[in-house]
Amino acid sequence: MTLKPWREIAIPHDDVLKGTFQQAEFAADLSRVHGGTATAEYQDPVLFFQRTFITEGMRLLLDSVVRRLAGKGGDPVIQLQTAFGGGKTHTMLAVYHLAKGEAAAEDLLGVAPILKDAGVKVPPRANIVVLDGINLSPSQPQKHGKTKVGTLWGELAWQLGGDAAYQRVADADASGTSPGKDVLAKLLADHAPCVILIDELVAYIRQFEEGRHYCGGSYDANLSFIQALTEALKAVPTAVLLASLPESDKEAGSQRGVAALASLSHYFARVQALWKPVESREAFEIVRRRLFTGIGNRKAAEAVCRAYADFYIENGSEFPEETQESQYYQRLLEAYPIHPEVFERLYRDWSSLDNFQRTRGVLKLMAKVIHRLWQDDNKDLMIQPGNLPLYDGDVRNELIYYLPQGWDPVLEGDIDGERAVTAEVDRDTRFGAYQAARRVGRTIFLGSAPATQAVSGQLVRGLELAKVLMGSLQPGQTVGVFRDALNRLNDKCHYLNRANDRYWYDIRPNLRREMEERKRRFEDKADVLPAIQQRLQRLLAQGEFGGIHVFTPSGDVPDDWALRLVVLPPDACYSRTEPARATDEAGKILKQRGDQPRQKQNRLIFLAADGDSVSRLRDQTRTMLAWQSIVNDIGELKLNLDQHQSRSANRNLEESREAFGRMAREAYRWVLVPMQEARTGKVSDLQWEAMQASASAPNLTAEIVRVLRENECLISEWAPIHLSNMLKAWFWKEGASEANALDVWQKTCSYLYLPRLASDEVFKRALAAGAPSQDFFGFAYGKEDGHYQGFIFGRPTTPILDSSGALLLIEPKAAAEYAARKQPEAPQPEPPGPGEDPRHSEPPALPGQAPRSVKRRFYGTVQLNPITTKLDFNQIVDEVLLNFTAKADSQVTVTVEIHASSSSGFDDNTQRAVRENCRMLRFTSAEFEDE
Q1: 492 and 404 in a common domain
Q2: Boundary residue ending a domain (827, 857, 883)
Q3: How many CB atoms lie under 10 A from the CB of residue 231?
Q4: Which of 664, 663, 634 shows the shortest CA–CA distance to 515?
C-alpha cells in the first residue's frame, strides 16, 4: 500500500491555508467576548466548541460548574493556576459560553456527555461577571451610562444587576473600602445563579502602591475584597468564581506582583479547587482541532502511523526507547499529522522560555509552519522537526523572537539559509535526495535552541543522536545517510557543538571557525609538506627496501645496489588522465643523481599520491595543524575557553590526526615502476607501470611489496631456469660461453629491461639452487690459458659472489664439453672448502709432477664480544658454518666455551639461574669455582 502524504489526509482550516490568520486571533480575550467584539471562533459558542478539545481538566471543571449552578454541589471557588499559555483564558471562555446559554447544549460539541454525567438536562442560564485585570485600571473608573465605577466590587455589582445592584455597594466603591462578606453574599444570592470570571487578577493588584489610595481602592482593600468574596461564595450554593493566577513568580512580574501572588494564593487556598492543567498529549488534539478541519481518510492516517511505528521497531537500536513501546503507535495517531516529537520539543523545551505560551505559542508557530509547507507543496508523510521551514521569514521570526540575540547568523550560516552549510552538504546527491542535512540541522535546532536561555551550569545539553534521527527520518529512508550527513555537518558547521553523543547549536561560534581562520596561516612549503613528510615516514617501514626517501631531492637519493622506495611530493601526483605530473618528476630522479647520470636505475621504485586526493590531503593537514595550534594556545593560556570547548578542542585534534593519517594512507596509493621492454634485441623507450596499493592494508610497505611481487615487478624468489634464460638472452651470445656473475648481478640493477631482484641474496639463492643440475650453468672462479679454476658443474655448492668478481657462470653445453675434455688421469680437485677462496685453491697436478696435498680438515677459533655475542654468532653460522654443513660428507663439530669471572663474586640467584639454564641446554660441563 502506497503511503499518502499528510496534505492528502489532513486539510488545514481556510485561514491557515490562506495565511489570513492574525496572531491576535490566537489570543483568547475574555473581555472582547463579553463585549461582543471577538472573532467568530471565540464569540460564537457553537464554533468555539467545534474548535475546542475538551481536555480531562476542562471536563472536570465544567462538570463542577454545571453542578454548582444547578445547586447540586460543585466547588464555589476554582483557581486556574498553570504555566503561561496553559489555556486558562480558553477554559474561562468554555464556562462563559456554557453558562451564558445562548446556544442549546446539544449544539455544543462535547457538552452533552458532561451534562449527562452531572445529572443536569439543561444548565440554568446564569448572570456572568467578567473582571479582567488588564482592562481595568486602579486610577481610571469605568463608565456605565451616568454611573462611574472605580473598584472591583463596584464593577462586580454593576455587572450583576446594573445601577440597582451597584447602589448596594456604592458607598464602599466611593470610599475604596471593601464591602463586608454578608453584603457580598446577599448581592450574589439575589442574582444567582451567577458566574464570576476574574482574569489577570495579579496584573491588576500589583499596580497598587502600598500607602497610596486610588479610585480603585488600596492594595489592602483589594486583598480584603478577595477574601470576603471567596468566603461569601460558600454561602451561595448557585454561585461560582473562577480566577486565574500565574504559576510562577517570573510571570507575576515586579516585586509587588510577587507579593500579590503570594497573598492571593493564600486566600484562594482556603476555599479553592485547583484546575487540572492540560497534559501534553491533550495538547496534540487542541492544536489539531484549531489548525485542521479533520482527518479526511482515517485508514490512510493509520497506515502512515503504523509505517512509522514499524520503522522504529525494525531499527530499534537507532531510535529512542519510547518508540519501541506498543503505545507509541497510539501517540502517533493522536498527534497526526504533526509528529509527537514536534510537540515534545515545543511543550518541554520551548515552553521553558520567557513569553512562550504553551498552547497559544504552539498554535501561532504551527499555523505558520503548515501554511508555508502547504504553499511549498510539501509531500512528506508527517510534519516532523526536520520539516520546519526555517528558511521562511515568518517561521524563523516566530521562533527566534523567544531566543536571545544572535540566532540570525546561526540559521543563515549553518541551518537553513541559501548559503548555509546544510545546503552545501545537500548538494551531494546522496544527501540531497532526502534533504538529509537540512532535516538534521532543523531537528537539532528545534531541540537545542532553548538551552541557550536555560539555567547556567546545566549539566546536559543538546539532543541525543537517537532523537536527531527520529526527528529527521521517514519510513523507508536509510539511517546511514542521515548519520553521514550529521557527521558532515559536525565537520563543517561553525555553531554546531557535540559532546557525549549529543548535539546542539549555540550562538557562540564553536572552535571550528577559529580553526578555519587558522588554517589560512599555514603554507604549503613551510608547514604542510613537512607534516605530510613526517606522517609518511612513520607509515613506511624499511621492509625489503634498503632505503625509503620521502620528498628527497634527486641528489640525496643514493645510486647504489640497494632497492629504494622514493616517495614523490604531493605536487607530483598521479592520475590516469594526467600521469605526467608524477612520471616526469620520477623520471628526473631516475635518470639523474643531482648533476650526475644515475647508473643503478633498476633499483628505484616510486610512490605517488592520487591526483584526486591531494587537495583533500592538504586541507586535512591544515586542519590538523590548526587544531594543534589551538590546543597549544589553550595549554599556554593564550585562549580563554570553558571546559567544554577545551575538551572539544582536544577531541577535534585527535579526530583530525586520525583523519589525516587515513587521508595520507588513501592518497599515497600509486606505485610507479620504471621499465623497458626488449624484443628481438631492441629495447623500448622508458615506460611506467602504475599499480594501486590497497588503502586498507595494515602495513603500507608490505602492501607495496605485495603489489610489486604480484605484478612481477619485484622478484624475491628466482628459479634457476629464469636466470639461465636471461643469461642466454643477454650474456651467452655472440660466441660467449661464460659471464661474470658479479657483472650479471650489477647489470640487473642498472638496466630496466632486466628482472628487478629484491637483493643480491635472491641472485645467490638462484645460483645455489641451479648448481646441482647440469641444465642451467656451471661455475668457475677464473680462467687461465683455457682452463677454469675451481670448475664446478652439476654438483651442489654455495657460490661465492664477492667484490672481486671472480665467479664465472658457464653456459651448460660449454661446461659439459669442458668436463668431458678434462684428462681422466688428472684427479678432479675438490670444490673450494668453506672459508677458502677458490682462486687460491691448489690447481690439479700436471703430468710428471707430484700431486699436491688435499686439505681435509679445518680448525678455527674466534673470540666474541660478550655484548654482541648473539649477533656475532649468527653471522658466524651464516658465513662460515653453513659452508661446511652444505657438503654432504662433512662432519662438523662446534664447541662453545664460556669463561666468566667477577671480583665481587656471583650471588646465589645468578648461580641458580645459570645452572638451571645450562642443564636445560644440555651443557656437558658447567661449574662455578672459588678462584
Answers
A1: yes
A2: 827
A3: 19
A4: 634
Say if residue 777 is in the same domain as residue 676: no
Kindly state whether residue 266 falls inside one of the protein's structural domains: yes
Q: How far apart are CA 690 and CA 670, in angstroms?
A: 6
Own/partner pairs, 895-902, CB within 8 angstroms, 24+ separation = none
CB 104 within 8 A of CB 273: no
866 exposure class (CB count in 10 Å sphere: 0-12, 13-18, 19+): exposed
pLDDT at 295: 87
- 771 plus 646 within the same structural domain: no
CATH number at residue 94: 3.40.50
3-state secondary structure of 801: coil
Specify the residue for cell string 612481477: 712
The alpha carbon of residue 696 and the mean position of all alpha carbons in its chain are separated, in whole angstroms, by 21
* Residues 6 or more apart in contact with residue 221 via CB below 8 angstroms: 151, 176, 177, 178
Q: What is the structure's pLDDT at 887?
A: 67
Q: At what angle do helices 219-234 and 152-167 cross, to 10 degrees?
A: 60
Pick out the chain residues at pLDDT < 70: 1, 21-28, 81-87, 247-253, 270-281, 452-460, 680-681, 823-853, 867-868, 870-872, 874-875, 878, 882, 886-888, 931
428 and 337, same domain (yes or no):
yes
User: Do 124 and 256 share a domain, yes or no?
Assistant: yes
pTM strictly above 0.70 = no
Nine-digit cell string for 607: 610512490
590 vs 557: CA distance, rounded Å: 10
Phi-psi region of 754 (alpha: psi -120 to 50; beta: other; left: phi over 0): beta
Indicate whether 888 belongs to any domain. yes
Alpha carbons 776 and 768: distance in angstroms, whole number: 11
- Give pLDDT, residue 239: 94
Residue 864 maps to a domain: no
Q: Distance between CA 211 and CA 125 in Å, rounded? A: 42
Q: Are 753 and 683 in contact (CB under 8 A)?
A: yes
Coil/strand/helix, residue 135: coil
3-class secondary structure, 827:
coil
- Where in the sequence is the domain holding 563, given as residue range(s)? 518-690
Q: For strand 678-679 and strand 682-683, is the pairing parallel, antiparallel, or unpaired?
A: antiparallel
Question: CA–CA separation, 600 vs 587, rounded Å?
Answer: 13
Residues 83 and 206 in one domain: yes
Are residue 683 and residue 559 in the same domain, yes or no? yes
* 528 and 612 both lie in a single domain: yes
Using alpha carbons, select from 113, 92, 268, 111 the residue that is nearest to residue 195: 92
Torsion angle, CA of 374/375/376/380, rounded to 10 degrees?
Answer: 10
| Helix/strand/coil for 596 | strand
CB 666 within 8 A of CB 660: no
Contacts of 561 (CB under 8 A, 6+ apart): 600, 603, 745, 746, 749, 760
Last residue of a domain, one of 509, 532, 567: 509
What is the tally of structural domains in the chain?
Answer: 5
| H runs (alpha helix) in 318-359 | 328-335, 340-348
Q: What is the pLDDT, as a whole number, of residue 21?
A: 63
pLDDT digits (tens, 9 = 90+) for 387-415: 999 999 999 999 998 898 889 999 999 99
pLDDT of residue 88: 78
Position 253 scores a pLDDT of: 66
Q: What is the pLDDT of residues 350-376, one digit of tens each?
A: 888 877 877 778 888 999 999 999 999
Please tell me the predicted confidence (pLDDT) of residue 454.
47
Residue 862 belongs to a domain: no
* Cβ neighbours, 10 Å, residue 922: 6
